[in-house]
Amino acid sequence: MLCLFFSPFKHREKNLTVVTVFFLLGFQASKGLGTLLFYLFLLVYCGTICGNLLIITLVSTSKNLNNPMYFFISQLSIGDILLTTNIVPKMLQLFLYNGKTITFIGCFTQLYLFSSSETFECLLLAVMSYDRYVAICNPLRYASIMTRTCCMKLAFISWSLGFSVSVPTTVVTALLTFCGPNIIDHFFCDMNPLLGIACSDTIIVYLEITLLGVPIIVIPTIIIIASYAKIIVAILRIPSNTGRQKAFSTCSSHLTVVSIFYWTMFSVYVFPAKGQSSTISKMISLLYTVFTPFINPIIYSFKNQKIIEAVKKIIFM
Predict the structure, then answer these.
(1) Which residue intervals of the chain are DSSP H helices?
(2) Element (H, E) at 183
(3) Tens digit of pLDDT for each residue in 46-93?
(4) Which of 1, 69, 142, 222 has the smallest count of CB within 10 Å of its CB?
(5) What is the per-residue pLDDT across 288-300, written as a single tens digit (0 to 9) for each?
């Protein structure tokens, strides 16, 4: 059987056929349902971009939002815009055409940007947990610890690690041999579906994912759990109910975002349900690639008086 090697270069040699495209199946649906889903997710995408751009603009222009917590929220919004813009435009085409081809370069560029943005958000959520820990457990030292320089360094480290850790696994995956159907049963180029259609040995890829991916997941998770354990202890020591509610309200939004992010990611990549179908996997993937970036600005804005006031100033200025 003739093996198909996926390569960014278009050429033919003796006994070698080079396939330069993958076919994304997406969600197989009737034309009417596909059109309905197209407009629904187009609306969600527009809302995601507008909501996150609003957060970025408010943090950049409002003096009342000039503190580390809002700076990190704006960085999260940048990551959400990158993530959803990388996934949704191609997904919208899938709804209209019931599947669509994607070039080799386009597929692995999408995989790289997806992995990078998810790694960045994983690290940033850990940084934000540490920020809430310092704010609640060491309020008198908060300003001296979480300086502007410190926040910039933490954000830079998160971005740098996010975009560097994903390089080896993306490159090694791109060098795999594919000799079966070039059909990806997903709505974007994700690692698991790609490895599923590879016919060469994927042990090196899995080894790299373990060596690089596990620390990226485990270390932030430990930081988040340790931070919130100490936060809960500190909140329980506050004598008044009003004080406890006020302290908890400063981290409740972040805790909600962390819970959604890790639940969806762990459900797909770490502890997938036994016998989980590709349809269920795609539905869960929709949560962290499309809906989470959409609801994050809503979660952080809900009952946040400073953000509400900043929005009113823009509307009524």
Answers:
(1) 31-61, 68-97, 104-137, 142-145, 148-174, 191-196, 203-208, 214-236, 241-265, 278-286, 292-301, 305-316
(2) strand 183-184
(3) 999 999 999 999 999 888 888 999 999 999 999 999 999 999 999 999
(4) 1
(5) 899 999 999 998 8
